Each structure stands twice: as structure tokens, then as C-alpha cells.
Amino acid sequence: MTQTPYVTAPSPSGRDGIVVTGLRRSFGDVHAVRDMTFTARPGRVTALIGPNGAGKTTLLLMLATLLAPDAGTLSVAGHDPVTSPGAVRRATGWMPDVLGSWNALSVRRAIETTALLYGMTAERARERAEELITLVSLEDIASAQTRSLSRGQKQRLSLARALVHDPSVLLLDEPASGLDPAARVALRELVRGLARDGRTVLVSSHVLAELEELADDAVFVEQGSTVSAERLARAASSARPWRIRTTGSPELLPQALADLQVPAAAVSTVGDSLLVAVSGEDSAADLLAGLVHRGVRVSTFAPAVGDFERTFLDLDRHSDPAERSGPGGDGPLDPHTGDVR
Ligand SMILES: Nc1ncnc2c1ncn2[C@@H]1O[C@H](COP(=O)(O)OP(=O)(O)OP(=O)(O)O)[C@@H](O)[C@H]1O
Description:
alpha/beta; Rossmann fold; Alpha-Beta Plaits; six-stranded mixed β-sheet; four-stranded antiparallel β-sheet; globular; binds adenosine-5'-triphosphate; nucleotide-binding; ATP binding; P-loop_NTPase; ABC transporter ATP-binding protein
């Protein structure tokens, strides 16, 4: 995707972002969304993180006016999706996890048609389609029928359609799914640029590694409920593994760790690294200073996993098993696949 996105200043209503309070939605006796409360702020990318079945898509559908809540309040760009769906749709770009497209239309015509549905003139719709085709790098297949697109190409078309009316709020459900590594990097740059211009971006994914570099903020969801700030703080303060690699004499590091009275149970070996469980950034800084002081030549000293992943795994460790029966998310999340283990 190109680095020169077509973006204009978002509408002033974008200043309001997304505000969700006490949201609930059930399907029969399946409580997909039990109690969600969070804010996604303009100018920032907010990650919606949770295992399969946690209620992310159900939430996004309610924000996009496509599903009515049973209880709670919602505000999108200052409008209520229940009472003002038209205003919310004008302000919101929605990228679903699976593209529903007009199979026989070309990529170009599909975007033009979306633009016409948003009330643009035929000429403006043609211009807008070209802008977006360039933006998401679909130039080579602009004339191809959408039925022939690969999954990754469909994702790009879906994003282009979400951006047609230059929305101030973007709801992206698994946007990187099916993209190759280069396209993922381009998507990240594009989405970050859209947020920098003042848009509110809410991105759902269960692949945490993907979200680490994309998002500014995170909302964690488990079994239909957002995780409280208190539980997040508890998770953040618990011991986490740091990866340490050294050059030079291999016995120096274990010796220095012993001198620093790091318990043997806190140390494990993975490949050519040691993983050391450390509580908090200050302790990590002290440990690094201690190693260097003892002459250890440290070449790598970093958290073994990303922040989102660590927090999610810690949440799982600290959760009450009695609370863990629900419509989904019954086991810990595999941070790479997002599957429940
Ligand atoms: N229309 C529906 N009818 C019945 N149950 C539903 C419906 N939509 C969702 N559910 C159930 O609600 C729960 C939450 O589903 P949802 O799709 O919101 O989760 P998700 O977090 O988006 O999951 P994933 O990461 O797998 O996409 C699941 O148990 C799902 O089976």
C-alpha cells in the first residue's frame, strides 16, 4: 500500500470517539456481550483484544448500527447508534472480518458503487475510487472482478470501502487477516496515519503480536466483559520473563545471576538465551545494571513477549476458574494464533 494516503481532516464530531458503558447483548441463552465499558479516543488506535468468542465482533456490530444492544449506552462520534443510526453510519467506516462484495463487479466499480451509495456524484465517485485504489495498492487488479481476489486483496478492498466517505471513526475487524508481511507493514502505516489525523480507530484482533506495534491503547475482553483497570494493574505488576543473551564467556551470566541472588526457579534456558522472571521495569533496570557491573557482556535484554501478550497471559493466570465458563474463551489464549488452548 502506498505511503501517501488520501486523507482530509475528520469531521469535528470525531473528537468524541467511542464511549461504551455497561453494554449487554445476548443471543438466546448465549451472553455474547455481558458487561462492556470502555472509551476509544480520537487520534489513537485502540486494540480490542480477546480470545475467540469473547464478544468482539458482537460489540463491533453494535457500534456499526448493525445489531441492537439489550442494555447499556453507546456513543460513536457523539451519536447513539440506536437512536441516530444514520449519523453514526456517516461518521463510521466499518471493515468486517469477511468482505461481503458484489462478485461480478470490478474492484474499481465496487468502490465507485459504495461511493455512490454514500451520495457522491458519479464524477466524484470515480475520483474517489482511483484515490483509494492507489491508497491500498490495488492498481494492478483494479479491473478484476472481486470474485477473483485473494483473501489479502479482499481485505484491502474492504479497507478501501470503509474509507470511501472519509469517516472520523474506523471499526476494523481483523484487518490484517490474510495480508502478507509487507502488506501488514503498509496497513500499519496507513492505519497509524489515519489515527494521527485525528480519527478514532478501534481494531479487533486475537493475534496480539500484530497489534503490539499498531495500537496506542488496549481494551481487553474476556467472556463478553471488559477487564477492569484493577485487574489490568494487577497483571501489569506481576513477574514477567525477560530474555537475556550475552557474548563472551557463557558461564559468567549464570554466575552473576547467582551473585545477584536471583532464585534458580526464576531462570530458564531457551535456545541461546536465559529467561529470567522479573517483577516490574525498575527491577529489570537493576538487574541489567548488576549484570553489567559484574562484567557480563549483555547483547540482548528485553521482555520475552510483547506487552499485550504478557498482560493477556497474566490476566488468564490471575482469573478465577469459576468465572471462566461462558460462551467462549474457556481456556488461555494462544497469542500467536488467538485460539483458545
Ligand atoms: N447471531 C448469533 N447467534 C447466536 N450466537 C452468536 C451469534 N453471534 C455471536 N454468537 C456467539 O456469541 C459469542 C461471541 O461471538 P463473537 O463473534 O462476538 O466473538 P469474537 O470475540 O468476535 O470471536 P472471534 O475472535 O472468533 O471472531 C460466541 O459464543 C458466538 O458463538
